[in-house]
Specification:
Length: 102
């Protein structure tokens, strides 16, 4: 069970995404789903660093990111950016989400 500010507000999240897609369609005159897919492709990290080593000698090494982790990270970053840019501002979350996706 999740404990946070927006616990269980699925209809609110659905309406936010719907309004964001309408804003994207008005601003770009393109399919909002295709714009979202392109944003997820461009936002995901291609490389990551991981700890390699043992016995106290640890160093960071660059490794490729798995495709599913790329998608998950990019969706997380888009949502976090929209939330942070709309927090205590006049603009709505849908407007900020549309701007992040575009």
């Amino acid at each position: 069970m999740r404990t946070s500010r927006n616990n269980g507000k699925k209809i609110l999240a659905n309406n936010i995404v719907r309004h964001a897609f309408e804003i994207i369609h008005l601003m770009t005159n393109e399919n909002p789903i295709q714009v979202l897919v392109t944003a997820i492709e461009n936002c995901g990290p291609r490389e990551d660093s991981t700890r390699i080593g043992s016995a106290g000698a640890a160093r960071r090494q660059a490794v490729d990111v798995a495709p599913l982790r790329r998608v998950n990270t990019s969706v997380f970053l888009i949502a976090k950016g929209a939330k942070d840019s709309s927090f205590r501002k006049v603009r709505t979350v849908a407007e900020c989400l549309a701007e992040e996706i575009i």
